[in-house]
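Before the break, one more example. Copy the sequence into your notebook; we will annotate it together after we see the structure.
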Amino acid sequence: MTFNRLSFLSRYALKELFNNRFFSIFFAVNLWLGLVGFVFIGNIGVGVDKYFNHNLKKILNGDLQISSRQALPQDLSKKVENFLSKNNSNFEITQTISLFSMVNSTKQTALFNVRGIDKKFNLYSDFAIQNGEVNSASIGDSLLKKQGVWLDKESMQLLQVKVGDKLKIGNTSFTINQIISRLPQMGSAFSAFVPTVYIHRQYIKDTGLLMLGSRVSSSINIKLPNVQSIDSLKQKLISLIYQYYPNADDLRVRSLKDASERLDVLLEYIAGFLNLVSLVALFLSGIGTAFLFRNYALKRLKSSAIAVCLGLSSKQSNIIMLIQLLLLASVAGILAVIFGGLLSYIFSIYFSDFIGDFQFVLFDLTTALAGLLIAIFSAILFSLPTWLQVRNIKPIILLKSEGVPVVSQNKRQWLFYLPGLIFFWLVAAYLTNWIQGSFFILVFCFVLLILIGCVSLICHFSMWLSKRHKGTYKMALRQIARHRNATISSATAIALGVFLMAMIPQISMGISDEIKQPKGALLPNYFLIDIQEDQLKGLEKLIVEYGLRLDHVSPLVRGRLTHVNDESVGRRYENPEQKKQGLLRAFNLSYRQKLLPSEKIVTGKSFDEYTLESPAQVSIEEKFAKRNGLKIGDRLIFDIQGIALEGVIQNLRSVKWNSFQPNFFVLFQTQALILAPKTYIANIPSIKDENKFQFRKALVEAYPNISAIDIQKLIDSTLSIGAKALELILFLATITFLSGMMVVFSISIMRAYEKKTELSLLKTLGMSSLSLQKLVLIEFSLPAIIALFIGIILSILVSFAFSYLTFERIFEVHFDALAIVLLLATLLIMVLAWLVGGYVSRIKPLQNLRDDQS
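Here is what the structure looks like once it is written out:
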């Protein structure tokens, strides 16, 4: 094909699109709305990857980490160095140890995370001090030689000290000789709201804090700047450790990949929801695209037949249509890339207070190309069925027909949609995973078949019902039955769009309920830990004197799980890297007479009456059970200070951790632990800022062993992030809703346009304008509205199934959201049908017929 011929075909294609502006605009907008979410999520995903690549080394302070919840074997560091020397010439290694202890100044006492570091501590972390740099020289001089201690300004204010003052940690005194200006991004979740002090690792033993039963975290951090295969080296280290320390179940080797998997549950939910929104929006755009193109292709058949008669070949006619699809898809893809970048920019501004140095991506080439390819393939594949149906129709037949040509329907035509479904299956698997993507496609096809069957029944029922009515109602009902294929395609497409639309608010509101503070929950200001049993009455009296109250007093018993179903926990898995570290650590066990409002039994039953003849019954938090392969009926053996306690899992609980109440992974029957050595934890709600210092001072003076942890900042930050995330979720749900309403609008208006000639003939035969509007209203609205109700019901069932699969059963039916979707879709269909009927009735029949023949 010559350039001139291609140029002529392109100009012809553009002229046709311009003459059919309604189709061009709605086709492009449908694709654009479907793609903008995909581009936005792709940009955010690239930003997240860059963020973690940049920050995970800081968080882990190394490329590999060997960690334990007790003191590391003394010769482990030497063995690791020898191993690395043989396998890698360039490496750095540092060892840290940390524990929680009370730190005393002359004026104040508070709980701190005491971290012992050595000269090479600052491998990757962004640790900084006010005077000088954190390096081997400063650590060696300040912390080792001068027996110093480092802490930040807030900690100094808490202890009411200044540089040069003494702090007593355990049995040893240290001198404050540096102020930390930037804390490293590392530590456990608990240490996130417990202040940290830094001393040299050599002095940890001198403090006398390393005793039997002490809660210690220790690690060896390894920097490997030139190693490409970190995973391979990690496996070799695991083998080395289990060769020399076969019974050291608590040792764990972590890489950056392992650290990245510890994302917050909130982020997992939001990522899953974003992918679902993107997937639903793409499907909605596919539905709208297929229906819009079908109507456009049928409308242009006559003009195409005339062009063929004037010398245009069928091949050239197909090329014109292909050019039109490529142009519209490209416009939609480019707009999606632009608006996706704008959404990323808005997102960056909106979350700037919480995301620190997160690197937002306004344009990513891979995402942009993927968006353009999806736009092009979506446009072509979902237009393919109509294209294949009309391409072989002879021009003479088209020129003889009146009005919009009728394309013959057959059972094989549904196979034409198979390439589009396969394509969207691949996209769904890319956005989620193969299991969830396959599940979504299967559900989509299943719902489609149900809707087609239901609308077919409506058509049959309409014919039966028409025999029992007269006048306009009889004619409208017969029109529904006679135009069976058109009714099925339009009503099914609308119902499918509403089905997809209704899924999003159901799931989004379920996630919202998980993010938001539980209704009626009174959030605590302080956590009190290490309360002795004989201190409870005196402590409660002290708290009452300050006009406060002690809430949710919970016993805490330390124990280590040793066996599951008579199998040692350390031997449950075939190779060391498969060990579930959640089972290999010491647990905080507890008991209570009744569950807190933040807890609910989801599987199993409540505790039976306790008997000495049977093992104690145990309740396990459901997500913890899932992570570690535990189920109801499993027999567990815990070691509690040398005494074995056997339990059987009686039920699994869901826990709302955002209630910030004393919650536990493992709960026993009360009688099983009531005599065990224990301390208590509790919380205090609603302390005014001006009273905090005086209360804390009185508490330390009366009960120096009790640690009061101020978690107000943590709670405020968490709830603020949750509120922002909730607004983002609702915003994306709104985009999907608009996309769905665009599908409903497009299908309704194009369906009404098809009837223009027929309505003109009816008016010519004497039907009044009001009767015409009633006819259109009943014919369009009745099957669509019934299908809408079916789609809404199916959306509830599928939302529950998808929530179970993706969001761990975060689901609750929100009838108000469903009512809004149903009401708006119904009103839109009825208003459009009424307006179109009125519009056609006002045009002179002769003009309508001339327009159709032109």
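The two ends are 31 Å apart (CA to CA). The longest helix spans residues 712-754. Try to locate both features in your own notes.
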